[in-house]
Automatic annotation (TrEMBL):
InterPro entries: MetI-like (IPR000515), MetI-like_sf (IPR035906). It is found in: Cell membrane. Belongs to the binding-protein-dependent transport system permease family. This is ABC-type sugar transport system, permease component. It is a multi-pass membrane protein. It comes from the Bacteria. The keyword NAD does not apply.
Length: 294
């Protein structure tokens, strides 16, 4: 039997796909345009009219960014803080979330409320700075790690996911004599991969993009400067200072604030863009937390 075509359904499909196409274009165009500008000669980019492809191809913008003497050490510090902080925060936050998800834990509600309280009230920048000073964390690498070991928001996200797991897994393991730590490591953690990957992506992006803490706590310690902070200083110096034409020339090309800004943006976002496809399936699964109830 031939399926009947409903006009309203056809119109809905046309509207839906039209919206999705325009949304995709609106999302991708700024990125493609930034890449085109970053690969274009700086002086030529000032004329405008660059859309999807560079008009006068050059790699001098990236050379100006990547040949900075302090960039290699800053990249090492950024990668180190991103990896270490992500692993520690995901593990400790998920461990706390597991404890607060157990119904037999007597104080789980008041402790949860205490963590929620910290989400609404913040002491401010000056008290935080004084706290770091009292803890002797200023001008140290640990100032990037310790303040973010636990996240109240991420804990609630992970706890919500763990609450949706079947208790039969835990009960079976307890009958076999497994301890709480064994249950957490061998059962809860593997079952929570989607939400853990989602949180790990959030933490990694936050650590990778962070520069204000480097400026605030380690601004006078060059060996602990981060990639984002160095790129921010580079961008500020190119934008705000009057540089001579000779100092910006490389062979037949010239870098300008516009071209440097584009190259800096691409260098900053590239590692996260490369990481995302490997976590996409877990990321989508993590975003659907609580969407289906049995």
């Amino acid at each position: 039997m031939k399926k009947r075509v409903v006009v309203s359904d056809v119109i809905l499909e046309i509207v839906k796909w039209t919206f999705l196409i325009f949304f995709t274009i609106a999302t991708l165009y700024p990125i493609i345009n930034t890449i085109a500008v970053s690969l274009n000669d700086g002086l030529d980019a000032l004329k405008g009219g660059i859309y999807l492809t560079p008009r006068k191809f050059t790699l001098e913008n990236y050379k100006s960014v990547l040949t900075q003497s302090t960039l290699l050490n800053a990249a090492f510090i950024t990668v180190s803080r991103t990896v270490i902080a992500t692993l520690l925060q995901v593990f400790l936050t998920s461990l706390l979330a597991y404890i607060l998800s157990r119904k037999e834990f007597l104080f789980r509600k008041p402790i949860t409320l205490l963590f929620i309280f910290t989400m609404y009230f913040n002491a401010g920048m000056i008290p935080n700075y004084l706290l770091m000073q009292r803890l002797h964390l200023l001008n140290t690498f640990l100032v990037y790690i310790i303040p973010g070991l636990l996240s109240a928001f991420n804990m609630l996200v992970i706890r919500t996911y763990m609450n949706g797991l079947s208790d039969s897994f835990v009960e079976s393991a307890q009958m076999d004599g497994a301890s709480y730590l064994t249950i957490f490591w061998r059962i809860i953690m593997p079952l929570s991969k989607p939400v853990l990957a989602t949180v790990a992506l959030f933490v990694a992006v936050g650590q990778w993009n962070s520069w204000f803490d480097a400026m605030l706590y380690n601004g006078f310690t060059q060996r602990l400067s981060t990639l984002q902070y160095e790129l921010m200083k580079l961008l500020s110096s190119v934008t705000n200072q009057s540089q001579s034409v000779e100092s910006m020339k490389h062979s037949s090309s010239m870098v300008t604030p516009t071209s440097i800004r584009a190259a800096t943006t691409i260098v900053t976002m590239l590692p996260i863009v490369m990481l995302y496809p490997f976590l996409q399936k877990y990321f989508i699964g993590g975003l659907t937390i609580g969407g289906v109830k049995e």
